[in-house]
Design goal:
CATH superfamily of the largest domain: Regulatory protein AraC
Helix content: 40-55%
Strand content: 15-25%
Order of helices and strands: EHEHEEEEEHHHHHHHHHH
CATH topology of the largest domain: Jelly Rolls
CATH architecture of the largest domain: Sandwich
Distance between the termini: 5 Å
């Protein structure tokens, strides 16, 4: 059984890169980078990885992926992830914090997340690769009088290009219905408030709609009611903490806003099909 820290490690933009935008080229030969990435962790920034060749196996929130050849990978802030294996890989990354991303791009990223790695056709991948090459050149030209403006705008163009590809695959329709807009707004609220707000009626109040209408919108769009999404988001966070930290079940319950530890334990067991301790043991052995 591997040893886990008492909390999930968090890589911060300030501590790791010291700037709001960072670009890097790497390969499977950079073993120091690989060793750092193969430990489960979160980031407080957006990570866009363009893999050019080779095979990468990695895990994001208990989902394992194997990506071979040219592909784009997006990891959103606070997703728990780790690299499991790399073979003859070369890739380039754009790392950018929320303050440097255009609000319209942030809206798209919130709408599509979470996403799987994306394989692209040759022409689109070539365009993304060329755009990334330009961004890396701009990143290195720190002597430019308008360095920050050039870098920020070029990286936003790259992020928009990648995001638009995800958006095209995730939602081919040209516009969202009112039901879909309400559901999107609910999910955005849920991501920020899941540990604080647990009643559907409170989310409905924040969205200025009735509870029944919010339920109708969410169920029509996703097939599941509001309460289901609230529970699933809480359980995902509980799974993250059980697997990646040494916190007790009681500590995790309290962190997720449950003063009644017994209630939280019953909720976890009913939702997952096993107790919290059984989940921890099964996934660590």
């Amino acid at each position: 059984m591997r040893k886990s820290p008492n909390s999930i490690p968090l890589n911060t933009m300030a501590d790791t890169f010291g700037t709001g935008i960072f670009l890097e080229t790497a390969s499977s030969e950079d073993m120091g980078l690989y060793r750092q990435a193969n430990e489960a962790h979160r980031d407080d920034y957006h990570l866009f990885c363009v893999q050019e060749e080779g095979t990468t196996t990695f895990e994001i929130d208990f989902q394992r992926y194997q990506v071979a050849g040219a592909a784009v990978i997006y990891i959103q802030p606070n997703q728990v992830h780790r690299v499991i294996g790399i073979e003859k890989v070369s890739f380039r990354v754009l790392i950018i914090n929320q303050d440097n991303l255009h609000p319209a791009i942030l809206d798209i990223l919130q709408e599509i997340a979470p996403v799987k790695p994306l394989k692209l056709d040759a022409a689109t991948f070539s365009l993304i690769s060329e755009s990334l090459s330009l961004c890396i050149q701009f990143f290195q030209r720190k002597q430019e009088p308008l360095y920050r403006v050039i870098l920020k705008e070029s990286c936003n163009a790259l992020a928009a290009l990648i995001s638009s590809q995800y958006l095209a695959h995730a939602n081919p329709s040209e516009s969202l219905t009112r039901f879909e807009r309400i559901t999107k707004a609910f999910k955005n609220l849920l991501e920020s408030n899941f540990a604080i707000i647990k009643r559907p009626s409170d989310y409905a109040k924040k969205l200025s709609v009735s509870t029944s209408y919010l339920n109708e919108c969410v169920k029509k769009t996703t097939g599941q009611p509001v309460s289901y999404h609230i529970q699933q988001r809480l359980i995902l966070e509980a799974k993250r903490l059980l697997y990646h930290s040494q916190k007790s079940v009681k500590e995790i319950a309290f962190e997720l806003g449950y003063d009644d530890y017994a209630y939280f334990s019953r909720l976890f067991t009913r939702t997952v099909g096993m107790t919290a301790l059984s989940f921890r043991k099964k996934n660590r052995d």
